[in-house]
From TrEMBL:
The chain crosses the membrane at residues 32-53. CDD domains: ATP-synt_Fo_b. HAMAP family: ATP_synth_b_bprime. It comes from Camoensia scandens. This is ATP synthase CF0 subunit I. GO terms for molecular function: proton transmembrane transporter activity. Keywords: ATP synthesis, CF(0), Coiled coil, Hydrogen ion transport, Ion transport, Membrane, Plastid, Transmembrane, Transmembrane helix, Transport. F(1)F(0) ATP synthase produces ATP from ADP in the presence of a proton or sodium gradient. F-type ATPases consist of two structural domains, F(1) containing the extramembraneous catalytic core and F(0) containing the membrane proton channel, linked together by a central stalk and a peripheral stalk. During catalysis, ATP synthesis in the catalytic domain of F(1) is coupled via a rotary mechanism of the central stalk subunits to proton translocation. It is found in: Membrane. The gene is atpF.
Length: 184
């Protein structure tokens, strides 16, 4: 029995001699355990890690391709927008030039219209003044004629007798009739 007990003592003393047990020597066990764990991880985890990295690589490449496509689409849209902007700017310049020329043309037409209207008003004014002058002259002539006629009639009535008076009236009526025929 002693051999069996000695063998247990021996096994307790030499834990790496084929039995399981705890080795309390940290410096001796940690590098061995780490190398075993790393070996197992590399051997079994190589495929899984490789698959994970390949999947990640594919996702990154897909994202890059999508980004490139989006970038190209954005560049195309930018070029289209720039072309539309150039077209709109050219149309705006054309409208601006046409607008300025149209404004100048309208301004010129308005000035000409105002000048023509002013000339018409000036002509109407001059015609009205001439008409009023002629009317005033005619009124003055009629009054002078009436006063002269009244004065002559007054002188004739005081100087003439009935017979001479009737002859003078007949002569004047004849003269007025002759003047009326000349006017007509």
């Amino acid at each position: 029995m002693k051999n069996i007990t000695d063998s247990f003592l021996c096994l307790g003393y030499w834990p790496s001699a084929g039995s399981f047990g705890f080795n309390t020597d940290i410096l001796a066990t940690n590098p061995i355990n780490l190398s075993v764990v790393l070996g197992v991880l590399v051997f079994f985890g190589k495929g899984v890690l490789s698959d994970l990295l390949d999947n990640r690589k594919q996702r990154i490449l897909k994202t890059i391709r999508n980004s490139e496509e989006l970038r190209e689409g954005a560049i195309e849209q930018l070029e289209k927008a720039r072309a539309r902007l150039r077209k709109v700017e050219m149309e705006a310049d054309r409208f601006r030039v046409n607008g300025y020329s149209e404004i100048e043309r309208e301004r010129f037409n308005l000035i000409n219209s105002i000048y023509t209207t002013f000339e018409q008003f000036e002509n109407y004014k001059n015609e009205t003044i001439h008409f009023e002058q002629q009317r005033a002259i005619n009124q003055v002539r009629q009054r002078v004629f009436q006063q002269a006629l009244q004065g002559a009639l007054g002188t004739l009535n005081s100087c003439l007798n009935n017979e001479l008076h009737l002859r003078t009236i007949s002569a004047n009526i004849g003269m007025l009739g002759a003047m009326k025929e000349i006017k007509d």
